[in-house]
Amino acid sequence: MMAGGDSSSSSGGGRGIGLNTKHVPSEYVELVKKAGAMCSAVSPPLIAAQIESESSWKRDAISRDPKTKKPIAYGISQFIPGTWASYGKDENGDGKADVMDPQDAIPAQGRYDCAVAKDVAKVPGDPMSNMLAAYNAGPDAVIDAGGVPNYTETQGYVAAIKAAMKKYEASLDDSVGGVGNTDFAQKVLGTAKAQLDLPYVWGGGDINGPTGGGFDCSGLVLYAVYQASGGKLNLPHSSEIQATMGDEIPRNEMQPGDIIAIQTVPGDYSHVAIYYGGGKILEAPRRGRPVRIAPLSQYDGKQQTVRRFG
Q1: Residue 48 near residue 19, CB atoms below 8 Å
Q2: CA quadruple 33, 39, 43, 46: dihedral, nearest 10
Q3: What is the DSSP string of 269-280?
Q4: Cβ density class 154-192: b for 16+ within 10 Å, e for less
Q5: What average pLDDT does the structure give for the chain?
Q6: Lowest CB count within 10 Å: 126, 156, 158, 230, which one?
Q7: Same domain assignment for residues 133 and 213
């Protein structure tokens, strides 16, 4: 029904997929893309599907209590006043955080999605369903129920959003993961995938492959990029330096084969990974964990930069 349930405070359901802009009013396309890139729990198609369900893209929409007829939710994203007070901001610099202004409301919708996703991250079941249920009914209801609560409205909301998302999804290869959109990206992924299950080795990996029997994070990246480029790109064995190289790419334009540098410690890009698609990364994570494919959502809340080579 609406962005209800006051909670404070990004995890698990986003898929890094593209937006089919044919069904999105042109004035809202960039707002939806940016809101859908705020954390890995959300995506532009999810944001668009929510807006369609909440307001049918009507910026002046107001929902009323069926009994009292009093207004209870406002604007394109249908915020109740208490939730808006916590998440609404003056995004367009006009001096007012206006729930009826899509330029303020749609970014707030993304923030709220990410916040409730974090609140229910430990609840069993499908993370996306739990996040949508929390958006509709509040995180406490999802936590208490151990999943999507048995509320007719909430269960209908979750099903409707997930169904509507299909209309807004672009036909991009990374919706399924593991397929790069360029020859270079495919070679990066193919080279890295061939190293799956090799052990993590501190300082491991160079242009010729594993050293000491395995890789560390930047060793895996430099090897994959070097091989994909035919020896033309020889990156340093340093996550901090790799984080400054290549072309910086907005998160909502991330594609399989891109490199993601992550500040696991504030101010220090101490980890790098390869975006695999489908909200997943290919990484050499740490001692005791082999080269693997894992959810990018494990790094929600950490500063990230996306770099593209080739």
Answers
A1: yes
A2: -110
A3: --EEEEEEETTE
A4: bbebbeebbebbeebbeebbbbebbbbeeebbbbbbebb
A5: 88
A6: 230
A7: no
Residue 17: its pLDDT value, please? 57
Q: Is the pLDDT of residue 175 over 50?
A: no
Helix 152-168 and helix 127-137: axis angle, to 10°? 120
Asked whether residue 284 is domain-assigned, the answer is yes
Whether 184 and 283 share a structural domain = yes
Residue 3: inside a domain:
no
Percent of the chain with pLDDT over 90: 71
Q: How confident is the model at residue 104 (pLDDT cuts 50, 70, 90)?
A: very high
Q: Which of 235, 100, 101, 254 is nearest to 177 (CA)?
A: 254
Task: Give me the mean pLDDT over the 135-159 stretch.
Answer: 94
Kind and range of the H or E run holding 144: helix 139-145
Cβ neighbors of 292 (< 8 A, separation 6 or more) are: 196, 197, 282, 283, 285
Distance from C-alpha of 186 to C-alpha of 29, rounded to nearest angstrom: 29
Q: How far is CA 174 from the centre of its chain?
A: 13
Cβ atoms of 130 and 149 within 8 Å: the answer is no
Q: Report the alpha-carbon distance of residue 13 to residue 146 in Å, rounded.
A: 17
Q: Which range of residues forms the domain containing residue 297?
A: 175-308
